[in-house]
Amino acid sequence: xxxxxxxxxxxxxxxxxxxxxxxxxxxxxxxxxxxxxxxxxxxxxxxxxxxxxxxxxxxxxxxxxxxxxxxxxxxxxxxxxxxxxxxxxxxxxxxxxxxxxxxxxxxxxxxxxxxxxxxxxxxxxxxxxxxxxxxxxxxxxxxxxxxxxxxxxxxxxxxxxxxxxxxxxxxxxxxxxxxxxxxxxxxxxxxxxxxxxxxxxxxxxxxxxxxxxxxxxxxxxxxxxxxxxxxxxxxxxxxxxxxxxxxxxxxxxxxxxxxxxxxxxxxxxxxxxxxxxxxxxxxxxxxxxxxxxxxxxxxxxxxxxxxxxxxxxxxxxxxxxxxxxxxxxxxxxxxxxxxxxxxxxxxxxxxxxxxxxxxxxxxxxxxxxxxxxxxxxxxxxxxxxxxxxxxxxxxxxxxxxxxxxxxxxxxxxxx
Length: 415
Description:
The protein is mainly beta. It has a domain at 1-37. It contains two helices and 30 strands. The chain has a six-stranded mixed sheet, with no helix packed on it. A four-stranded antiparallel sheet has the order 3-30-29-28, with no helix packed on it. The chain has a four-stranded antiparallel sheet with strand order 4-5-6-7, with no helix packed on it. The N and C termini lie far apart (77 Å). 34% of the residues are buried.
């Protein structure tokens, strides 16, 4: 073969390879276009809109129940960036779900009405009470108990307060007035009954041989001791008029106890016992409770049917402290579930601030066992939230929680 013919053949081969490469690139581009997949960036301050939702996938937990995960079935906003000390949802005079919360530094009360969609948080009181450690609210949103330390000592002051709005108030933007009176000092824990007219307080015995509890009107009058125990450390709640829950403070080495105490008959009913690292959350009719327990340097959440005395394993790794029962549906549980859990002694390490989590928000239907992820925190905002102090509106549409990292307040609007 001549040199000229060899050159011609090489040129032809190169041209064929080039044409083949062009064909492959065109074919690949056509296939990508046919899928119809698009990526859009949401500019909404509430997160993703419907145009860029990611489709639902289904997984199975160890009980064989369905657990669906869909990115962002809710919208998240930061309501208040400064530290807060407690919040409550209530129904205002217009029939709207409204939220009130306390600024931790100065004790001012703020209000937010989600249905207005204005995005405005309004201060409704000017009364200054500095360094509020805890605000215990009544369900009406009209009464609260400020809890704060006296002059940087260990003495706990308790101020029972009533919010009086101006009689000429047309909107919640007008200023309110705080009136009230001091309760007994050094109440270790205090709760308000569902009706909002009684309080139950827990105190240490003077010789530290145990604790005792009293019931009184919300202003502290007509106080009467109704509870006595050899144990010092309890966590208490008042979910139903005839049920005050007593849970021993959790520890990763000790078996915990839960009792239902009837403040009308003074009877104690043991509900759970011997559960290591026990923390509990009872729904508003006392029929179900969520409880977490320690497990191999981690923790799990279970459901207990109080009526039938049956425990169900959800195979969900979170703490009862990071959950709230629904109001409209009290068989639905909303929980902040950590994305990752470093190995440690729980729940102690979390309570002591040695460990912090980055959570997502999930909905658990206790009746069906379905577990649905409704929001991935950080997908639309630069935030890592370790959620606690969850509270939910009466229509179960708005979920509010505190970020344990900085005590800022966040709200999730369910779609």
